[in-house]
Amino acid sequence: MARNNSFIKLEGTLDGLTFYEKDGVNYVKTKSSISKSRIENDPAFRRTRENMREFGASAKVGKALRTAFGSVVKLMGDTYVSARITRIMKRINSNGAGIRGERDFDILANSDLLKGFEFNETDPLSTQFFAPYGSPTLDANRDIITWAIPDFDIDSFITKPEGATHCRLVLAAGMLSNYEYEAVLNSYEPVDEDENALGGTDYSADIPLVGMVGAETRLTVDLGIGAPVVGTTAVIASIGIVFYQEINGQLYELASGNAMRIATVG
Fold it and tell me: Which residues lie below 8 Å from residue 19, measured CB to CB, with a gap of 6+?
């Protein structure tokens, strides 16, 4: 792969060269001489097929996690959030039981790889909101998640982006099933499809960015299961902050400063 520094910017494939743009930079790469059929069938490419299968599964599990958090990912995530989640899922897969190419994804057993994940590496939560608080807690069924934040001084514990006049604290929670390789389907599938990729979000009231909040803030997400969540499904809770600017009595979300981190996996 090389950069295309020519004043002529092309996109697509020409004479075996593929031109494309990424993050505002133009690149060019040569087309592989190895056919897709050979990769899929030649015994020499067995390891390549194993790697491709597990990497594809890591992207699939990562997508389920992003689905569980819905629009919050778009609001909080940076440009590379999808790739970074996939990378974590591949690490979880590497720790899984089974032979190469068929190793499973055990989310709860690898919860430490998810805890502390920042949806936006540029604006981690600890730099935007650093008031004293505890981690979100799960009820006995693991389907109701609660986060309590004691009253605090805005000026001391929040970094205000330029133009921000208000904020909301956010609790987002979702369920992510373990995944296993299904030989009949030649693909990875969730162990608990009914409880996979479900989620919910709770926002605080609008908080003016001045003085004390005035009371404890308590956020709750009810995932609506109404029964114990099965042991092969993890419940993942994230906490965050969203900033707004008030214009003529209307609050508008800011594009910068918003932050969210995975705080509890149980």
Answer: 4, 9, 10, 11, 12, 13, 26, 27, 28
Whether the per-residue pLDDT at 29 is higher than 90: the answer is no
Q: Which residues contact 246 (CB under 8 A, 6 or more apart)?
A: 165, 166, 252
CB 64 within 8 A of CB 44: no
Please give the Cα distance from 207 to 96 (Å, whole number): 44
DSSP 146-205: EEEE---BHHHHB-PPTT--EEEEEEEEEEEE-EEEETTTTEEEESSGGGSS-EEEEEPP
Residue 43 CB: number of other CB atoms within 10 A? 6
Among 14-18, 171-175, 245-249, 253-257, the range scoring the smallest mean pLDDT is 14-18
Give me the helix-helix angle, 81-94 and 46-69, nearest 10°. Answer: 120
Token duo for residue 33: 């001489």
Report the Cα–Cα distance between both ends of the chain, in Å, rounded: 42
Q: Around Cβ 67, how many Cβ atoms within 10 Å?
A: 15
Q: Is the backbone of residue 74 left (phi > 0), alpha (psi -120 to 50) or beta?
A: alpha
Integer-rounded Cα radius of gyration of the chain: 22
Q: Model confidence at 99, in pLDDT bands (50, 70, 90)?
A: very high
Q: pLDDT tens across 13-27, in order?
A: 655 556 667 766 676
Residue whose C-alpha is closest to residue 201's, from 248, 147, 151: 147
Q: What is the mean pLDDT of the chain?
A: 89
Q: How far apart are CA 149 and CA 120, in angstroms?
A: 22
